[in-house]
């Protein structure tokens, strides 16, 4: 059977990475979390006090940065210049700043090139904001996942509590709305559904139901 490329886009906390991982596992495809790459650069920029509105300096920083996505038994690890930053890229500081880094055209150009190189073989599930529109415009299956902001905040909140992190539902709602706004309004490759993407509203669906819907689209293309 045919190995294909699957693009999963959508707003923040819509469950993209959760279902992308399940779909990849089912198909024994590789999973690529493109948001982790923008997060890793954001972490490095804040550590090195590079201003987030300084596109030239950020682009120079990125050119001197390696970001690796490693599949391991415990899931995907993110290595920034060889150092494991899997947990630290999920910090509140990085989450609140990443959209300012991701809006710069020079940064996006380099990230898209790296992502395309990673996906150069078929048999890939990639999630992000511009995968169906820019990174893999010829992906055989394109999914656009949405859910109400209340539901997305609630899911993230429950996830945080399970992990033992402190969490404030109203704060989460604001953070998610703010990030979606910046991601949707930027000039280059904004968050938007590709014309040929299938939209799935996950508000009242379980994780398994969403994964099943995506897999049934995939089996039609294989
Ligand atoms: O997917 P995740 O929430 O980790 O993405 C973090 C941020 O990275 C997004 O809010 C967005 O600003 C940026 N991003 C992007 N394009 C992608 C993936 C993520 O601009 N393909």
Automatic annotation (TrEMBL):
Residues annotated as domain Cytidylate kinase: 6-218
Encoding gene, per UniProt annotation: cmk
Keywords noted in UniProt: ATP-binding, Cytoplasm, Kinase, Nucleotide-binding, Transferase
Domain of life the protein comes from: Bacteria
Keyword presence, ATP-binding: yes
Family from the record: Belongs to the cytidylate kinase family. Type 1 subfamily.
Pfam families per record: Cytidylate_kin
Designated name of the protein: Cytidylate kinase
Binding locations of ATP: 10-18
Native organism: Ornithinibacillus salinisoli
């Amino acid at each position: 059977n045919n190995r294909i490329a699957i693009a999963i886009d959508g707003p923040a906390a819509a469950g993209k990475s959760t279902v992308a991982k399940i779909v990849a596992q089912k198909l024994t495809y590789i999973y690529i979390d493109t948001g982790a790459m923008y997060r890793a650069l954001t972490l490095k920029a804040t550590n090195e006090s590079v201003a987030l509105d300084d596109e030239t300096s950020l682009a120079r920083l990125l050119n001197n940065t390696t970001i690796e996505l490693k599949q391991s038994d415990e899931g995907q690890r993110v290595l920034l210049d060889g150092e494991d930053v899997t947990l630290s890229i999920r910090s509140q500081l990085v989450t609140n700043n990443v959209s300012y880094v991701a809006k710069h055209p020079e940064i996006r150009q380099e990230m898209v090139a790296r992502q395309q190189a990673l996906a150069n073989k078929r048999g890939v599930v990639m999630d992000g904001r511009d995968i169906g529109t820019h990174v893999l415009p010829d992906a055989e299956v394109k999914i656009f996942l949405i859910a109400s902001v209340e539901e997305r905040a609630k899911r993230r909140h429950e996830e945080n509590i399970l992990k033992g992190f402190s969490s404030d539902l109203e704060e989460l709602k604001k953070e998610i709305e703010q990030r979606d706004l910046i991601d949707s309004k930027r000039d280059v490759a904004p968050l938007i559904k590709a014309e040929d993407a299938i939209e799935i509203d996950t508000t009242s669906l379980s994780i398994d139901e969403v994964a099943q819907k995506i897999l049934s689209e995939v089996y039609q293309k294989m």
